[in-house]
Amino acid sequence: MPIHRDSTGVGGWLPVHGFALPRGGVDTRRSNDAPVSLGRIGPLEVRIARKAFEIKKAQELRYHVFYEEMSAIADGHMLSTGRDADAFDDICDHLLVLDHDVPERAKPFGRRKPKIVATYRLLRQSAAEGCGGFYTAGEYDIQTLIDAKPDLKFLELGRSCVLKPYRNKRTVELLWHGIWAYVLMHGIDAMIGCASFENTDPDCLALPLSFLHHFNRAPEEWRVRALDERYVEMNRMPAEAVDLRAAMREMPPLIKGYLRLGAHIGDGAVVDHQFGTTDVLIIAPVASLSARYVNYYGSGAERFAS
């Protein structure tokens, strides 16, 4: 099961600049020292999950979006639990957006809690290395890149989804506000993860895949190749035949947001038949982030400060 599913429904990677959080933090397990809140817009708040029931609620949200709303194929355990869960959940941090105006009970007769309406799964390199590696390594040869840059700290992003009524700009802004705060808190140098096209026929994706190959492929020092047994050629038409505007119209919102951020694309796509998608690898060195997005929230991140 891929770590990288996304269903935000809107584009835009909008990090905040100047969020004064300490570098460092917990090295091998989920963060228990995260700030109480990473940001707020009206009743919506972004923060890291702190309790097991919050992670279960995030897993239920993922199941609803990926398996009930979209076309992913659930196994028997998922069908019986109604949750999208795997072993990586135990070593990841779970970023949540909560709606305080829509409380729900964590369990029958329990205290009412704010509703979890969006989530993103964050896996730091230190945690991944202590437990078998990144999930993305099942599709891409990311270890080559990590070995080539031993002084950098990597963060894998994945399992992003937003409940349908909340697929709007402010929810996604809060998610990325939280991610940027997390990057600063843990001294992250580069973000990696996959983004998906909802189609398993690469020929139907010839235009956007060729656009990404010719105009957004990572520089050689950052380039990561899909595993040989899963490699799908992205160079499906010559550069001069690519209609740039048409290609962008066919691009999923999440990938558009990554490109605006200044992220690069790996070498080769991967077809994921379980989720009915074709995946591409996103590589985003923190030092190369677009100044437009880094400055979006103001130098003190005061726009959505709690």
Spell out the blueprint of helices and strands:
Blueprint: E1 6-7, E2 39-41, E3 44-48, H1 52-69, H2 76-81, E4 93-105, E5 112-124, H3 125-130, H4 142-148, E6 154-162, H5 169-185, E7 190-197, H6 206-215, H7 244-249, H8 253-261, E8 264-265, E9 270-272, E10 277-285, H9 291-294
List keywords for this structure.
globular; alpha+beta; 22% strand
Architecture overview:
Strands 1, 2, 3, 4, 5, 6, 7, 8, 9 and 10 form a ten-stranded mixed β-sheet that branches. The protein has helices at residues 52-69, 76-81, 125-130, 142-148, 169-185, 206-215, 244-249, 253-261, 291-294, and strands at residues 6-7, 39-41, 44-48, 93-105, 112-124, 154-162, 190-197, 264-265, 270-272, 277-285. The protein is built from nine helices and ten strands. It is α+β, with helices and mostly antiparallel strands and 306 residues long. The chain is globular.
Summed up:
The chain has about 300 residues and is α+β, with helices and mostly antiparallel strands. It is built from nine helices and ten strands. It is globular.
